[in-house]
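Fold this sequence, please.
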Amino acid sequence: MKITQTNLDFVVEPLLMPFGFKGGYLTDLWQVVAKVSDGEHYGIGVGIQSVLWSDETIFKTSSQKGGNAYMFLLTEYALKLLKNTEFENPMIAITEIQDKVYEYAKKITNHSNLRKTFALNSLVPVDNALWHLYAKEKNTENFLELLDDDSRKNFEGKQEKIYSIPLIGYKTSEEEIRKLASEGYFLMKIKIGSDPDGDNDPDKMVAWDKERLSAIHNIVKDMKTPYTDNGRYVYYLDANGRYDTKERLEELLSHADKIGALSQIIILEEPFPEDSEIDVSDIKLNIAADESAHSLESAVARIHQGYRAMAVKPIAKTVSESILIINEASKRGIPCFCADLTVNPYMVSTLKIRLKHLWQSKTVIILPCRTVKLQILP
């Protein structure tokens, strides 16, 4: 592959209501479109920028427009790095430019401790465009045919069903939760880690989380579903690294046990900050890594700390990096599941298409008693 031409654009999509997670709120999303060409074929890639998810410090120290502008500049820089260069496949291309994009990101944001996910998020439209172009050059619509033998073997299973999972943010009303539950959404991804008074008080956060979990559990605790072993609705908690100590997390889990909700928590995702070295092997839940698993090295580090699953995010961390993480996790017997950011309908459709090929074998949710093959589309 040799890139001879590139192009880039974006639109700002306002949200119907503020979307709360990671202690903050989004009011709009920048949707980015990248184009790459080899002179004969072209590839188009779409991406959604999420500054709050990728680095909350940049989100809190910049305006929403300013933080998004930083990320958009990184995407533009990545395309400049690729222009007039030649490489064998998209994974090699992304690997070769990733560190350069990250260093440039630290420079323009003036933030030496910038999280690497900020750079990865900016590379998503570029990566998607490269895979689109690569498929055209190989004259195939089968994603498996684009992978090498070592990667392909991890994607050869078959999924019987795909389930849609609603995302319960800080401002999702109890009325809406009740409506979703009555419509049969038996697995809910619940954002925890709120900052209710905007003062970053961890004790207030835990108190809010306990109250929120109680409210949701009271709504669905008596509802039944045919899709779980015990017929009960289940919860997928996402802390986005908001808990600073294991003691605070254990306080929340003790409360969950007290109200009868602990056995219904099938995944607790990213409880602690990325730089945390807290071992979670003694927590009797499936603890999954997300933002902190942004490379082979970081994923392995989390596995050593007792994490039992990996959330792969092709729409947030690139398809290329997700494949590398899945390959490594597979070697170590660690299951992966597909969980992505809030995206537009086009990207949801693209992900559904990839589910046919890309997320077939190791994409699972781990239930307390057994492994159930489910696909996450929050």
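Residues 149-377 form a domain with the TIM Barrel fold (CATH 3.20.20.120). Confidence is low (pLDDT under 50) at residues 357-378.
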